[in-house]
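Q: Structure tokens for this one, please.
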Amino acid sequence: MRDVAASAGVSVGTVSNVLNSPEKVAPATVQRVHAAINELGFVRNDAARQLRAGRSRCVGLVVLDVGNPFFTDIARSAERRAGEHDLTVLLGTSDEDPSRERAYVDAFDEQRVYGLLVSPVGDDLRRLVALHDRGVPIVLVDRDGTGTPFDSVAVDDVAGGRLAVDHLLETGRRRIAYVGGPSTLRQVRDRRRGAELAIADVPGATLEVIDTPALSVLAGRDVGEMLARRPATERPDAVFCANDLVAMGVLQALTMLGDIRVPDDIALIGYDDIDFARSAVVPLSSIRQPTGRIGETAIDLLIAATQGARERHEPSNPVFQPELVVRASTSR
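A: Here is the predicted structure, written as tokens:
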């Protein structure tokens, strides 16, 4: 900064103002300082600024699976909204592993991030509570934080599960399988609960639960291959998958093995409505979540919590409603 100040013919304090509060400096001086910055290739020391401010302008975002386009879309919308407030998003993926989640949370805490956005793996929130009690702003993402000290933004997954199975039942299906896991994930349990509520309303309808080790295409393909090996009379006539990646794996196996037709023999619906769902070999019906609103709202809640950090802050827990998207995989 001293070099920039000498080159521009101003004080170090003026250079600092140009970088942090340019509205306090005359436009001509701002232009002269930026010219010196460009000429010298100056990059300010953000670690030093962070040390003075007590926290950085970076937001730590920890998601369950960065390979899932649902979380990628949330991250993109969060990053876009964060940029409007001169914030940067740093992304980590827990891979549905509590120890990896803790490692990222601790690493972001060590970096004194502006705040944390976390999609928790399980129900043990003690580490996050400890950070919250210490004054670290935290927002739960894709998890309803009602009854916790956290702000949160979520989608009603029970309603989403019910919406999916109600649709399958309305098409005349009665032997329905729910595919997804692990059951330690709140989203998986809530979507299953919604499916169970829908089944309970229709006499003669049954729900077979097929657990998977992950919410991935490969896990779905394994289930699809297993179903294809069953005699036709022992197969479900519809499958509801806990997310679109699992559904696409099931679809791949069913269409590649045997003479099973989707949706004539087995109807198939996923969850999340990722971009790939509409371009599948049989366009996939799905339950749409408003990923853009989730990411934007998470940043808005974090900023509000940060601004109210020195005051009493009452948690806000908005819950969005999902939407049914019908495509060829459930329409005869």
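A few notes: The chain has 13 helices and twelve strands. Residues 82 and 88 are 6 Å apart (CA to CA).
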